[in-house]
Design a protein that fits this description.
Layout (H helix, E strand, L loop, with lengths): L2 H22 L3 H13 L6 E4 L2 E5 L4 E10 L3 E13 L2 E13 L2 E9 L9 E9 L9 E10 L1
Parallel strand pairs: 2-8
Antiparallel strand pairs: 1-3, 2-3, 3-6, 4-5, 4-7, 7-8
Length: 151
């Protein structure tokens, strides 16, 4: 088999894949009426807020971070919480993904974040909470702020 005999089927396959991608990708203008319809139905996105104070548990093996979730209708989605902390010349960080069931209204969820290498310490950290609660557009929502970790 020569390079030329292999190249033609590969090029043809690539062209078919590119054409399929273009054919099935919605245009930006097509989503504008859908977004307007969702907003007209009061289909507001949930909101997330990471708490300003977290609690260290098990000698730094976890930081419990409160997250306030507000929904206009019952939803279930994944929430990702990241915490990073600089202590001296070292960095401590961890990420947790947790499935949250959000009832209509506001609720607070406590999420444990486990550090990767070094334990969290009492002091200042930075937290980020994100989610993509697949509304018709899977619009990501997030909040970020300083988090004071206490014992």
């Amino acid at each position: 088999m020569t390079v030329r005999s292999i190249r033609r089927p590969l090029i043809a396959t690539g062209l078919v894949a590119a054409a399929a991608t273009v054919a099935f990708t919605p245009s930006a203008s097509a989503s504008v009426p859908l977004r307007a319809a969702a907003q007209a139905d009061n289909a507001a996105l949930p909101t997330l807020a990471i708490g300003a104070t977290g609690k260290i548990e098990a000698k730094g093996a976890a930081a419990i971070v409160p997250v306030t979730v507000t929904c206009t209708k019952a939803l279930e989605f994944d929430v990702t919480v990241k915490v990073a902390q600089a202590v001296g010349q070292t960095m401590r960080a961890g990420t947790t993904v947790r499935r949250v069931t959000c009832a209509e209204g506001t609720q607070q969820v406590r999420i444990a974040v486990i550090p990767v290498e070094r334990p969290f310490a009492a002091g200042v950290a930075f937290g980020v909470v994100t989610a993509s609660p697949c509304d018709p557009y899977c619009t990501p929502i997030h909040d970020e702020r300083r988090v004071d970790l206490t014992l």
